[in-house]
From TrEMBL:
Gene transcribed to yield this protein: ligA
Catalytic site: K120 (n6-amp-lysine intermediate)
Family listed: Belongs to the NAD-dependent DNA ligase family. LigA subfamily.
Residues where NAD(+) binds: D36, A37, E38, Y39, D40, S85, L86, E118, R141, E178, K296, K321
Cofactor(s) listed in the protein's UniProt record: Mg(2+); Mn(2+)
Key words of the record: DNA damage, DNA repair, DNA replication, Ligase, Magnesium, Manganese, Metal-binding, NAD, Zinc
Protein name: DNA ligase
Biological classification of the source: Bacteria, Pseudomonadati, Gemmatimonadota, Gemmatimonadia, Gemmatimonadales
Species of the source: Gemmatimonas groenlandica
Keyword field contains Zinc: yes
Length: 338
């Protein structure tokens, strides 16, 4: 029996519905029904349709959204500056296309700036508000504009400093990063849950996101959560320093854990070599889940010039996504069979 393809407007509507459901299951329920690879495939298909037929892009399209609107018992908290998502590159050709899109705006300056490359931690994004160096609020990303105020839970996470090291801190600053659960803690927690007859968690990302939203902070405190920082913003939208590399150094000096294996790359060829090494060598030894690397234009004045696309993704950064992690796939198989 041959399958008759749907007219393009119907296919777009079908994809919007599938993706909106998947976003709800992933961001709100912490229970994804699709694999990330399948989600990314459907997302790209809808993006391609919308690009070819702009009139089919509706205002509520999942391709224009960061995360999902907050729906929980927590108070909401407005971020100082909008939190964004990232566009994806799945191979070296897409990395080169990313560089060309930058050159079209800022020309050869990007070659002087180079790139900072970082691990893409597969966890849940949070924003930490510090007043004069003291932690006052911890918030989930939510829909990018406002998230859930989960301060009581964030205070239980080892590695999140309640007070930054050093002095002379900005009066108000948001430090952003990823809460994650290392594999060892995830496995031990699931084994304990099996022994207690409780349902197991599907993967470390969903376990971390779920733990952040516990109503009882003593439960969050028992979950083996960790944190890596990668961004800081002041109320005027600027970072406290002028390059991404210096920012990671500054975060480290303040006592914020920063992910290992970051590098400064001068060319996109160097970025490709780094990404290849991380995917095929480093990843298996990390002890926590990553789903790629993040490539950021190092110079923040160029970042400002490049700006944001569709209120959703910065033009100066891209996620170089990797193939699904065999370690995570294996964990999921074990969990499903328990
Ligand atoms: P993303 O994961 O594609 O990229 C943006 C996020 O990366 C940031 O918000 C931040 O949390 C994170 N990040 C980790 N390390 C970082 C670093 N060093 N620097 C900057 N950011 C870093 O973003 P997204 O918008 O949360 O989600 C889209 C992705 O989530 C999809 O590509 C898919 O993999 C997954 N997803 C899956 C389903 C599903 O049903 N399986 C549904 C929705 C989303």
């Amino acid at each position: 029996m041959s399958v008759v393809p749907l007219p393009i407007d119907q296919r777009a509507a079908e994809l919007r519905e599938q993706l909106a459901n998947a976003q709800h299951e992933y961001y709100v329920l912490d229970r994804p029904a699709l694999s990330d690879a399948e989600y990314d495939r459907l997302f790209r298909e809808l993006q391609a349709i919308e690009q070819a037929h702009p009139t089919l892009r509706t205002e509520d399209s999942p391709t224009l959204r960061v995360g999902a609107p907050v729906q929980s018992a927590f108070q909401t908290h407005r971020h100082l500056v909008r939190m964004l998502s990232l566009d994806n590159a799945f191979d070296d050709a897409e990395l080169l296309a990313f560089e060309q899109s930058i050159e079209r705006v800022v020309g050869a300056s990007v070659h002087k700036s180079g790139y900072t490359v970082e691990l893409k931690i597969d966890g849940a994004a949070i924003a930490l508000t510090y007043r004069d160096g003291v932690l006052v609020t911890g918030t989930t990303r939510g829909d990018g504009t406002e998230g859930e105020d989960v301060t009581v839970n964030i205070r239980t996470i080892r590695g999140v400093p309640l007070r930054l090291l050093g002095d002379g801190h900005p009066p108000l600053m948001e430090i952003r990063g990823e809460v994650y659960m290392p594999f060892a803690g995830f496995e031990a927690m699931n084994e304990a849950r099996v022994a207690a007859g409780e349902p197991v968690f599907v993967n470390p990302r969903n376990a971390a996101a779920g733990a952040l939203r516990q109503l009882d902070p003593s439960i969050t405190a028992q979950r083996p959560l960790r944190f890596f920082g990668y961004a800081a913003v002041l109320p005027d939208g600027n970072a406290p320093v002028r390059s991404q590399w210096d920012l990671l150094e500054q975060l480290t000096a303040w006592g914020i854990p920063v992910a290992p294996h970051r590098e400064r790359c001068h060319t996109m060829a160097d970025v490709s070599v780094w990404a290849h090494t991380v995917e095929h060598q480093t990843r298996a030894q990390l002890g926590f889940a990553i789903d790629g690397g993040v490539v950021k234009v190092n110079d923040m004045s160029l970042q400002d010039e490049l700006g944001v696309r569709n209120d959703r993704t910065p033009r100066w950064a891209i996620a170089r996504k990797f193939a699904p992690d065999m370690a995570v796939t294996k964990l999921i198989r074990i969990d499903v069979s328990v």
